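Hi R.,

Here's the chain you asked about this morning:
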Amino acid sequence: MVKNTAGGKYAKKAKRGSLNPPLQTKTRLVSEEGELYACVKRVLGNGRIEVMCIDNVMRQCHIPKKFRFFKRDNVIRVGSWVMVGIRLWESSKTNTDLLEVYSAYDVEYLKKLNENWFVFGEEESDNLFGTDEIEFTNESVESGINMSNDGEIDLNDI
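And here is the predicted structure, written out as C-alpha cells:
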C-alpha cells in the first residue's frame, strides 16, 4: 500500500495512478486511401511541419490541436515518423493532416514490414561497409621506395 504523506482524500489514488505505466497501444497501420507514412523534415511553426512522404514527395502537414501541446507520447521533432492523410478534397495534393505520431517502438515494428523505407534514409543494403569491394594483396608496389629482402622499408629513402 502506498504511504499517505500528502494527505487528503484523493492522495493515495493519485499516487496509484502514476505507479502503473500506460499500456502499449496497438500500432496504427495505413488502412485507407489517402493515408501515407512520412518523416518530419522541417518544423515550420504555427502548427505546420514539412514531411517527406513514402512516395518521395515533400508535403506540408497541418498539426491538429490534439498533437500541438507537449505530451510524452506525441513529441514531433525533425526525424520523427508520422502518418499523414492527404486532403483529397483539395485540387493540389500538397497539403496533409497529421493522423499519428510513432514512438521508437512503433518505428522498429514498421521497419519489419515490407515497405520502401529508403526514402527516410534507411538503406537497403546487406553490405554494412558500402557497395565498394576492396581487395588486399601482398604485392609490393614499385614507387621509388627501396625495400630490403626482409620486406623492410628504408626510412632514408622516404
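One quick note: The domain at 30-120 is CATH 2.40.50.140 (OB fold (Dihydrolipoamide Acetyltransferase, E2P)).

Cheers,
M.
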